[in-house]
Specification:
2 domains, binds 6-O-phosphono-beta-D-fructofuranose, carbohydrate derivative binding, isomerase, 438 residues, Rossmann fold, alpha/beta, SIS_dom_sf, 17 helices
């Protein structure tokens, strides 16, 4: 069942002065028509390969084979790569129970380790405790030149040599990067090429933060046994109204983008909070953070993404959300929770002074909390958009991911920036490499 979105609680007529006015929303939606035309044209001419991925299935069997071969008898799979080369995989892996707060460590093997951040203590600990004999490694970098990923890869190769596992490197390592381009150094390809490590191709036309539906995201998903075909099918659902030439008002991603841009332009809502009421969407909020920030933060424009998790962040950030500065648009994501999880014993509930808990489940409370948070924000005049996924599975996750990629591209069109580059981060990278050699 497709996701449902409602922006009723973000409208000025419902939440008051901090909501979007009908005129501003209408104007932004009218401008979004141009973005939808552009998306349809790129789908037609293949100019934005991301848009053709949902209908593509031919690449999935080899991807599954590579995943199964690598995961065979592995106790641990170490994913090396950062940002867009990691967050999509993490998001999908969480769907399979990996890195779920509190219980991720309980899931059956293989254990996945996403070494997304670079930290000397963490990496030293990884190499110290990892059973190298039964570990596998995947190094992912679109450019092949990201310092963090290269250092991680070099460190692992050295550790394997020290453990006398050098000859096994081609069997236990996989690389994923762009194909060699004349005149462009690809350090990762060169490095792994020395060891004859099998290389998967990173789609040249799909940037890292948009790569979750390519092998970058789907490889770890397949390793964990997720249905990658259903992920793509879910993405197709999100793109369907665009292809069906629906008006912007009937395309959820266009409505979300128009709302966000109109609120930023007319009501100074410079922060976009995405609060998900499901542990298995925690990594999704991080993925969304990179997608939104790196795609839109240009030329003094863009809004700042904040990820939040419910109900835990009710006990941390909600005070500020409700009563702090009026600079935010809220997106509350919920899923069907009623009747799920442990049921509360009546007697014990009475003793705890919560007779109302008796016979209810944890899911009943979380469901009520998601609803209550959205309503409380709105009652306090904060603009809220709600997104509801009946279930969190491969299809709904594919749909959610594609929804937000489309929303981001449409928002970029509305504010007049290029969604697909990130020129500002290059300066710091160059400087860091200079300091390293000084
Ligand atoms: O996949 P790569 O080329 O290693 O890049 C990793 C990340 O670094 C960035 O280029 C930013 O520095 C992101 O856009 C990207 O997701």
């Amino acid at each position: 069942m497709p996701l449902t979105q409602s922006i009723d609680s973000a409208l000025q007529q419902n939440v008051g002065q901090h909501g979007v006015s009908a005129e501003a929303l209408e104007a932004a939606l009218a401008r979004a028509e141009g973005a939808l035309d552009w998306l349809r044209a790129r789908h037609g001419d293949g100019g934005l390969p991301l848009l053709n991925l949902p209908e593509t299935t031919s690449d999935l069997p080899p991807l599954r084979d590579a995943a199964i071969a690598l995961a065979d008898r592995a106790t641990d799979i170490v994913m090396l790569g950062t940002g867009g080369s990691s967050l999509g995989g993490q998001t999908l892996a969480q769907l399979a129970g990996h890195m779920v707060p509190g219980v991720g460590a309980l899931r059956a093997g293989p254990r996945l380790h996403f070494m997304d951040n670079l930290d000397p203590d963490s990496f030293a600990a990884l190499l110290k405790h990892l059973p190298l004999q039964t570990a596998r490694f995947v190094s992912i970098s679109k450019s092949g030149g990201t310092g963090e990923t290269l250092m991680q890869t070099i460190a692992v190769l050295s550790a394997l040599h020290e453990a006398s596992l050098g000859p096994r490197i081609p069997d236990i390592f996989l690389g994923l990067t762009e194909s060699a381009k004349p005149g462009k150094k690809n350090g990762l390809r060169d490095l792994l090429g020395q060891y004859k490590v099998p290389m998967l191709e990173h789609h040249t036309g799909v940037g890292g933060r948009f790569s979750v539906l390519t092998n970058v995201g789907l490889l770890p998903a397949a390793m964990l046994g997720l249905d990658v075909t259903a992920i793509r099918a879910g993405a197709a659902l999100a793109f369907k109204p665009v292809l069906a030439k629906k008006k912007a008002t009937d395309v959820p991603a266009a409505v979300g983008a128009a709302l966000s841009v109109a609120l930023a332009e007319t009501k100074n809502k410079g922060i976009s909070v995405v609060m998900a009421y499901a542990d298995r969407l925690e990594r999704f909020t991080r993925w969304y953070g990179q997608l939104w920030a790196e795609s839109l933060g240009k030329d003094g424009k863009g809004t700042t993404p904040i990820g939040a998790l419910g109900p835990v962040d009710q006990h941390s950030q909600l005070q500020l959300f409700i009563a702090g500065p009026r600079d935010k648009l809220f997106t509350v994501i919920t899923t069907d929770r009623a009747g799920k999880g442990p049921r509360m014993d009546k007697k014990l509930s009475e003793i705890a002074g919560e007779a109302g808990f008796g016979g209810k489940t944890i899911g009943d409370l979380v469901g009520a909390q998601g609803r209550a948070t959205a309503e409380t924000l709105a009652k306090n005049g904060c603009p809220v958009r709600t997104i509801h996924l009946p279930v969190i599975d491969e299809q709904s996750m594919g749909e959610l991911l594609m929804h937000f990629m489309l929303e981001t591209i449409i928002a970029a069109h509305l504010i007049g920036v290029d969604a697909f580059d990130q020129p500002a981060v290059e300066e710091g990278k160059v400087l860091a490499k200079k300091y390293l050699t000084q």
